[in-house]
């Protein structure tokens, strides 16, 4: 099933989601570095990359929602997509709360760390669900995908017609 929103032949949601996932995971890593070392720079870095990660998640979400709306009702993919999207809303809210509860210098309480670590754990689950959608159920995969498919930048894509391959 092709994605509803594509750029140069690739799903926009799949392109954008790597940034917030990476940034939010890195924020947790910087939180751990701050907790271990006490170095204030780690806390400030976690604060700012968490803010950018939340913004990136908000940017990627509408494209994922548009793709989810295209999935036929009553399918396993639709149910998995709902869990994936709903879970990511919770992840974003938890990280946003962890960001908002921090001091201006980026320092955080134990409860604030717990929020971001809980969000990171849930993000692992929702990322797996996203992988299930794409790799197992073929959501957001081009209909002509295959090991020898032509480049998405090719001027023409082959299309099967009457048992033979034709060019559009």
Strand proportion, as a percent range, falls in: 5-15%
Q: Kindly state the percentage of residues in helix.
A: 55-70%
State the low-pLDDT regions, or none. 163-168
Q: What is the average per-residue confidence, as pLDDT, rounded to a whole number?
A: 87
- Helix/strand/pairing category: mainly alpha
What strand line-up does the widest sheet have? 1-2
Question: Topology of this protein?
Answer:
Layout: E1 6-7, E2 10-11, H1 12-16, H2 18-37, H3 40-70, H4 76-100, H5 110-136, E3 158-161, E4 164-167
Antiparallel strand pairs: 1-2, 3-4
Helix pairs in contact: 2-3, 2-5, 3-4, 4-5
How would you describe this structure to a colleague?
Helix content is 64%, strand content 7%. The chain has one domain (6-143, 153-167). Strand 1 and strand 2 form a beta hairpin. Helix 2 (18-37) runs antiparallel to helix 3 (40-70), helix 2 runs antiparallel to helix 5 and helix 3 (40-70) packs antiparallel against helix 4. The chain is mostly helical and 168 residues long. The strands form two sheets. Strands 1-2 form a two-stranded antiparallel sheet. 31% of the residues are buried. Mean pLDDT is 87; it is low at 163-168. The chain has helices at 12-16, 18-37, 40-70, 76-100, 110-136; strands at 6-7, 10-11, 158-161, 164-167.
């Amino acid at each position: 099933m092709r994605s509803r929103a594509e750029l140069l032949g690739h799903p926009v949601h799949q392109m954008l989601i790597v940034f917030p996932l990476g940034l939010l995971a890195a924020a947790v890593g910087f939180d751990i570095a701050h907790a271990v070392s006490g170095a204030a720079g780690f806390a400030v870095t976690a604060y700012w990359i968490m803010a950018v990660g939340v913004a990136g998640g908000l940017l990627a979400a509408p494209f994922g929602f548009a793709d989810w709306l295209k999935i036929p009702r009553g399918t396993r993919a639709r149910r998995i997509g709902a869990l994936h999207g709903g879970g990511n809303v919770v992840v974003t809210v938890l990280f946003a709360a962890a960001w908002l509860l921090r001091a201006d210098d980026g320092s955080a309480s134990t409860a604030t760390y717990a929020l971001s670590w809980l969000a990171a754990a849930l993000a692992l689950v929702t990322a797996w669900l996203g992988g299930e959608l794409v790799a197992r159920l073929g959501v957001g995969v081009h209909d002509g995908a295959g090991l020898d498919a032509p480049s998405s930048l090719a001027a023409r894509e082959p299309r099967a017609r009457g048992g033979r391959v034709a060019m559009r």
